[in-house]
C-alpha cells in the first residue's frame, strides 16, 4: 500500500503544474481546446483510479492495472502540452501526439500479453509480434503526417502494421491462446479489447485519410475526433482490464 500511496502523488505532481498554463486563454467557443482540457482531466482521474484499484486485485493482476494507470498518466501529461500548443498557435500538435502514441500504444499491446501471462504460459513471440506491428504502424503514420515520406506510403505501411496486430489478436497465437486456455471472463475481456483495437483504432486511419489524403476534414474536426478516440482506446481499454481483474480476483 505504501508504494501506491507514494506513487500516486508523485505521478500527479507531473501534471498538476500544467493545469494553470493555458486555462486563462481558453475561449468558450474553442471546442478543440475544451476537448483537450476535458480529456486531460479524465485521464488524470483514470490514473488515480487505476493505481488505487491495484490494491483490490490479486497479485497476478496488479501489473495489468498498473500498466493501465501508466497509459493514462503518460497520455495526461501529453494532453496538457497538446492543449497548450493548440491554444497558443492553433496548430495540430502532431509531434506531441505521436510521442504519446509511441509510448502508450505499445503499453496497450503489452496488456494483451500480460493478460495471457496471467492465465497461462504465453510465449515471448506474442509480445514481439505485437511490438513490431505497433512500431511499424506508428512510425509510418508519423513519417507520413510529418512529411518525411509520401502520404500514401505512410498510410499503406501503417495500415499493414495495424493489420498485422489484428491478425495476431484474432487468428494468431494470442487469439488462439485466449480461446483455448482463458476462463470465460478473460475471454470476454480479451474479445472486447481486440474489438476496441479494431473499431476504436479505425478512427485514426480514417482521420489520416480524410484529413491528409483527401482534405475532407478540417484540422479542428480531426483533433476532436482523435481526442474522443483516445478516450475509448485508453480509458475504456483500461476499464475493461480493471473489470476482468476485479472479477477474477473475487473468483
Protein architecture, described:
The longest helix is centred in the last third of the chain and has 32 residues. The chain is an all-alpha fold. It has one domain: Rhopdopsin 7-helix transmembrane proteins (Up-down Bundle). It contains nine helices and no strands. The mean pLDDT is 86. Helix 1 packs antiparallel against helix 2, helix 2 runs parallel beside helix 9 and helix 6 runs parallel beside helix 7. Helices cover 82% and strands 0% of the residues.
Q: Which structural category fits the helices and strands?
A: mainly alpha
* Coarse shape: globular
Fourth-tier CATH superfamily name: Rhodopsin 7-helix transmembrane proteins
Order of helices and strands: HHHHHHHHH
Summarize this, please?
The protein has 251 residues and is mainly alpha-helical. It has a single domain (2-250), classed as Rhopdopsin 7-helix transmembrane proteins.
Brief descriptors of the model:
mainly alpha; Rhopdopsin 7-helix transmembrane proteins; 251 residues; globular
Walk me through the topology.
Elements: H1 2-13, H2 31-53, H3 59-89, H4 94-119, H5 124-145, H6 151-170, H7 173-181, H8 184-213, H9 219-250
Helix pairs in contact: 1-2, 2-3, 2-9, 3-4, 3-9, 4-5, 4-7, 5-6, 6-7, 6-8, 8-9
